[in-house]
Every structure is written in structure tokens, then in C-alpha cells.
Amino acid sequence: MAKLKVAMIGCGRISGVYREVFKKLNDDIEVVYAVDKDENKALDFAQDFSNCKALTDYKDILGKEVDVVHIATPHYLHAPMAIDCMNHGHHVLTEKPMAISLEEADKMIDTADKTGVKFGVIFQTRYVKGCMEIKKLIEEGKLGKIIGARSYLSWTRPDSYYEQSDWKGTWDKEGGGVLIDQAIHSIDRVQWLIGSDIEWIEGSMDNRTHSVVDVEDVAEALIKFKNGCLYQLYACNSYVYDAPIEIEVVGEKGKAGLIQDLAWIQLDGEERYEIHEGYDGLQVGPSYWGSSHITQIKDFYKSVKENKPVYIDGREGRKALEIVLGIYKSAREGKRIEKGQL
After folding, report:
1. Is 234 helix (H, G, I), strand (E, B) or coil?
2. Fewest CB within 10 angstroms: 22, 189, 211, 253, which?
3. Which strands make up the sheet holding 262-267, listed edge to edge?
């Protein structure tokens, strides 16, 4: 089968992961374009691939011979870029969040439906081996009915982190703070494990330590799912270091959880055991990014080549965004937000 022709839009911090993934998948893909408004970043990315052209405007690739477009730009650009690319027949895999509003997310989903191209959203932490095993146990009923869940994220993002960027820490470009940027991965994993639509959300947020931005640096929420599960979450980026994310789901027959990528499982009447993540030879960037980008990207390419459904498509990607935006709405309005009010 011919190699997939791939374009990378956005050659910033996270692109280092894609660079290494593309090198490992060299037998299956050809990287033909690297795009960034900063030409030096595009040139730097392109130099690692023999037939890759550096560009500063993503519109220059539209309609060209490109099978898959990867989008890793500031959050507010995900929707317009993805929609443009899909309308020109390109399959799209975008970094999270897929958009900064549900209206944009729905337009992306509608465009994928209309054009028939594959559209996926990066939530690579679902692919962690232990997380997949917990999901399997839940689906097999071994934990029984899931009655509760919690997630805790305590990281550090100093003012200097925001001062180095012209879009981080803004409502109009990033879409928020710790929830939409850092905690959205754990929120996605928990809602996926619970496997139910939400019933209501009640949350609060604040900015307690960051003087250079007005987005939230701390938030908490209680979320009721239609299957009866109550999910308590806490997230802040004003801690003293990036502590391991903690996730727990509790069922009527046991409980299970994750400490970063280490999974633990305790079924009633059985000995607790752990599942350690294998890193497949790829560990780029901060440890909390994990090593599963390559797994999700390979899975997406398989969907394209075999014309099969995308595992984490637009509808799946929308679910965590809906929760994040629901917490923001609840915090701003000071009340519980029902599903129909989102």
C-alpha cells in the first residue's frame, strides 16, 4: 500500500512528539508539509524529512496531495483549520481540545459527516495499557455498577509559562486555563470509563496565584451521570511541581485507578494488582504526556487506510469538552447546570 502523505500544522512544543512518531512510522508515511506562522519552526521541523516543504500558511496545503493533516496549533485555530482541511478532502487528527466552544465542535462533526473524511481528536491517555484494562473490566461487569469516580490534578504553571505565549492563559484563544488545557485528559478518561452521558454539573473556579492571566488556575466540580455515578474532580496548576495525576473509579464489586500511567485494580475478594505502562521506545517531552501518541496516531492511520470508524472521533472528543465548558458555565452562573442547558 502506498505511503500516506502527511502534513503537520503547528510546529511548537508538542510537535516534538509528532516528529519522533513520524520518524518511527517512516515506512508507512511520507511527511510532505510542515506549517507554522514562524517560518524557523516550520523549517526546523521539515529538515528531518527528505521531501517535506516548510510553509507559513496552512491554506497553501488545501487541495494538495495530502492524506492526513495533523493540527497542533493554539486552541482557537483547531476548528477553522480542521473544517477547511476536511472541506478540501483531507483526513484530520487534531490535538485536544477539538475546539473552544460546543458550537465549533458541532460544526467540525457536521463537516466530517458531510465530507466523509476521517476526523479524530487526540486523547492519547485513553490508550495507556492499564486504562484500557480498566475499561475492559468495567465493560465485562467485573467492577459491577460504577457508583463513583474522582480525579485529582495538581501541577505547576508559573507566570513565566504564560508570559512566553501570546495565546496561553486567554479565554478567547486558549478557551480557559487549567481545565481546558491540563485537566481535560483526566476528565476525558474518567467520563470514558464511566461510559454514561452527564445529567448535571456543579462546579467552581478561581484564579488564586497568577497575576498575568485571568483564566482559572484552580477548579472543582461534582458531576452526576445518567447511570447514577457521581464524579468529583479537582484541578490546579499552582502547586509546587507536576504531581502524578490520580484517577479512581468505584464499582459495587471493587475499585480501580491510575496514578499517572500506573494502573491498580482491587476486585472484591481478590488481591490488588498493578499494570505498568510499556513505553514502546517513545518518550518525548514531559513524562505526563506519556507514550501513547504513537498508538493513537497509528490507530488513526489504520482507520484511514482500511476505511474503518475512528476510535476517538469528533463525537468522542466533544464529551470532555462538554464537561469542561459545563464547569465554566456553572462557575460563572453560580448554579447547577443540567444537560439541556449546556
Report:
1. strand
2. 211
3. 273-275, 262-267, 254-259, 246-251, 146-154, 230-236, 218-225, 198-206, 337-338
Q: Identify residue 311 by its one-letter amino acid code.
A: Y
The grid cell for 319 is 464529551
Report the number of secondary-structure helices (H) and strands (E) in the chain. 10, 15
In one-letter notation, the amino acid at residue 31 is V
Structural contact between residues 238 and 218, judged by C-beta atoms closer than 8 angstroms:
yes
HSE (CB half, 13 Å, CA atoms) of 222?
Answer: 6
Three cell numbers written together for 179: 481545565
Query: What residue ranges in 124-217 does DSSP mark as E strands?
Result: 146-154, 198-206
Q: Please list, in sequence order, all residues whose beta carbon lies within 8 angstroms of the beta carbon of residue 312, skipping any fewer than 6 positions away.
A: 120, 121, 122, 123, 126, 296
CA–CA distance from 284 to each of 233, 268, 280, 287, 291 (Å)? 28, 38, 12, 8, 7
Picking from 86, 153, 136, 135, the residue whose alpha carbon sits closest to that of residue 313 is 86
The position carrying cell 524557523 is 40
The angle at the Cα of 92, spanning 87 to 93, to the nearest 5 degrees, equals 160
* Residue 304, number of CB atoms within 10 A of its CB: 17
According to DSSP, the β-strands at 230-236 and 246-251 are unpaired
Closest by CA position to 148, among listed 257, 308, 72:
257
Q: Is the pTM of this model over 0.85?
A: yes
The answer on pLDDT for 219 being more than 60 is: yes
Mean pLDDT of the chain: 95
Cα distances (Å, whole numbers) of residue 98 to 174, 184, 255, 307:
11, 11, 31, 22
